[in-house]
Amino acid sequence: MKIDLTDTTASKINKALVQGRRAVGTPAVGMVLTLVIVTDEENAYDALRAAGDASREHPSRTLVVIKRVSRSPRDRTGSRLDAEVRVGADAGTGETVILRLYGEVLNHAQSVVLPLLLPDAPVVAWWPVNAPTDPAKDPLGSLAQRRVTDTYAAEQPIQELTARAEAYTPGDTDLSWTRITPWRSMLAAALDQVACKVTAVEVEGEEFNPSCELLGMWLADRLDVPVKRSLSSGPGLTAVRMETDGGPIVLDRADGSLATLSMRGQPDRAVALKRRETAELIAEELRRLDPDDTYASALKYGVDKLGEGVEEKTAPNAKDGSGNADGVEAGPAPAKKAAPAKKAAAK
Q1: Which of 315, 335, 337, 311 lies closest to 325, judged by CA?
Q2: 3-class SS shares of the chain: helix, strand, coil, % to 5
Q3: pLDDT (mean) for 134-163
Q4: CB-based burial of residue 344 (10 Å sphere; 0-12 exposed, 13-18 middle, 19+ buried)?
Q5: Are 109 and 101 in contact (CB under 8 A)?
Q6: What is the Cα–Cα distance from 338 to 199, expressed in whole angstroms?
Q7: What is the largest CA-CA distance in the chain?
Q8: How many CB atoms lie within 10 A of CB 283?
Q9: Could you give the percent of the chain with pLDDT greater than 70?
Q10: Which of 41, 44, 199, 286 is the most buried if burial means most Cβ atoms within 10 Å?
Q11: Which residues fall within 8 angstroms of residue 318, CB to CB, at 6 or more apart?
Q12: What whole-number distance in Å separates Cα of residue 181 and Cα of residue 194?
């Protein structure tokens, strides 16, 4: 059931929710949390679809806040709140309210959302795109116990990670961190199978992929070893290689779905490590609402400490005349010495 409200108020929206529940025959409220999605019109559909799929595991009231900027100077001076209320089959297993804010009310979104929160239930705020630099100090973020961002959607993901580390507040998390949960589980399980000491690690993946950086920072923070960041064509994170005193441990995923785990003295094993959809990621984040101390520790390790590994990986592209890959400075040197010999032969 859908109810459209134009130029409305939070009180009328609450009445529409009660009316909708009675109309579909579910007067009782059986939701466990309130999910506040702050997005734009372009990304609202995908975010709402992911939240709807996640609501099958976590029945919730979903509030979608869309800030609309009017092109007309006359409309910018006024304030208007339009709402679309969905209950029953149109809202998955919970309730959905799409809020479109115009004019002056854009600066007071928290006053619109606050009366619509479920009483005595946790609140999660999610920014699929255009997340604030400090989510905890954002007016809508201050209402939530858990704040979810997505660094991968930023224009400069690596710089965004640094900003996240500087502004981190317990309760912050990022979907780029959620994406590497299966990788972290698989690597931890591999190290539990053998008694060895890790001496060095290499993380390989796409350039400007925050999940690769976070995995490298997590490994460096937990293992206290140097981590080299190398580049590949993707998709996403492609391989992790750990050098140990008992032989190398390699987890390689070249196609984005099936990975191969290689360890000395054991046969290679194929493991399912597919890239997950946004609905699966947000559902995982809704399972725990306490601060993620592991994420905080990895985030504060620092992206800049992995920068040297990227340069070392790109250096083999410079080759001398014999085809051997040398360092960045060593590559061009033979070419400069060979130039006078070519001129002498020509004379």
Answers
A1: 315
A2: 40, 25, 35
A3: 92
A4: exposed
A5: yes
A6: 40
A7: 97
A8: 20
A9: 84
A10: 286
A11: 325, 326, 327, 328, 330, 331, 332
A12: 21
What is the rounded average pLDDT for all residues in the chain? 83
Q: Report domain extents, the chain.
A: 2-149, 181-275+304-312
What are the tens digits of pLDDT across the range 96-140?
A: 999 999 988 888 899 999 999 998 899 999 999 999 999 999 999
Torsion sign across C-alpha atoms 323, 326, 331, 337: negative
- Kindly report the pTM of this predicted structure: 0.82
Distance CA 49, CA 45 (A): 6
* Residue 148 pLDDT exceeds 70: yes
The answer to whether 29 and 60 are in contact (CB under 8 A) is no
Residue for token pair 């089959």: 89
Q: CA torsion 265→221→208→240, rounded to 10°?
A: 0
N residues, the chain: 347
Residue 302 is given by DSSP the state: -
Count other C-beta atoms under 10 Å from residue 84's C-beta.
Answer: 18
* Interatomic CA distance for residues 86 and 64, integer angstroms: 11
> What tens digit of pLDDT does each residue of 243-284 get?
988 889 999 998 878 999 999 888 999 998 888 999 999 999
Residue 252 three-state SS: strand
